[in-house]
Design brief:
single chain; about 95% helix; about 0% strand; transmembrane helix
Length: about 230
């Protein structure tokens, strides 16, 4: 982007120089024409005035175009001043990386708090269910002692409660196994990404080393060419 702007600026300078040349040529032409007209015998001033008016109009048009190009160059220079250089871009990149790391850390912390809240909420729900179940058993026990039929019915209710608790336990175990499987897959992906990251860092380091070697060899070649 910076190179394109510089190219446009250079081309604009070329156009301005061309317009300067045209304006200068017009002035020289006016002077030479006026000199010739003054040296020649004048029969009719009307033709001379018309010729001078045409030349003045040409000069005014050239000056107008030149001023427009000068304003365009000024605008282009202001735009180029707003384009950051390499040092500023590197500084922006470092700042964006810092902000990205900070946002990622804050996101992980928030996610951990949400997970803790959901876990504690589930624990509270199951504790409330357990308390309600024990309360219902405690309330139904005195009635079960009054007759064998009530006792048998109470035992059947306990069996149903036991089956319900086992089903709930199975669902929780299944959910836990799924979460463990997802965790294992994510750990494998993390290991793969970390390995790729280490390979990337090693490749970058090797590239920097080769670049330094290339620069040294280029300097040696330049030195040999100078000696020859």
């Amino acid at each position: 982007m910076y190179n394109n702007g510089l190219f446009i600026l250079l081309m604009t300078y070329v156009y301005i120089i061309n317009y300067f040349i045209v304006a200068y040529s017009c002035v020289i032409f006016v002077n030479s024409k006026a000199k010739l007209l003054l040296e020649e015998p004048v029969e009719d001033d009307t033709e001379l005035k018309e010729e001078l008016d045409k030349i003045r109009n040409m000069v005014e048009v050239a000056r107008s175009k030149l001023s427009k190009k000068a304003r365009a160059v000024g605008l282009m220079k202001r735009k180029l001043d707003h384009i950051p250089d390499r040092a500023e871009l590197a500084q922006y990149q470092r700042r964006f990386v810092e902000l990205s790391n900070e946002v990622s850390a804050r996101y992980r912390e928030t996610k951990r708090h949400y997970a803790l809240y959901n876990t504690l909420s589930d624990v509270q729900m199951y504790l409330n269910k357990e308390l309600s179940l024990l309360s219902s058993i405690l309330d139904a026990y005195p009635e079960a002692e009054k007759s064998p039929e009530a006792k048998e019915q109470f035992l059947r209710q306990l069996e149903n409660i036991d089956i319900s608790v086992k089903q709930t336990l199975d669902r929780v175990e299944s959910k836990r196994n799924k979460e463990q499987s997802v965790k294992s897959n994510l750990n494998n992906q993390l290991s793969t990404c970390m390995s790729a990251h280490r390979q990337y860092l090693a490749a970058v380091k090797q590239l920097e080393t080769e670049i330094q070697k290339n620069l040294q060899l280029q300097e040696q070649i330049d030195q040999l060419n100078k000696n020859e």
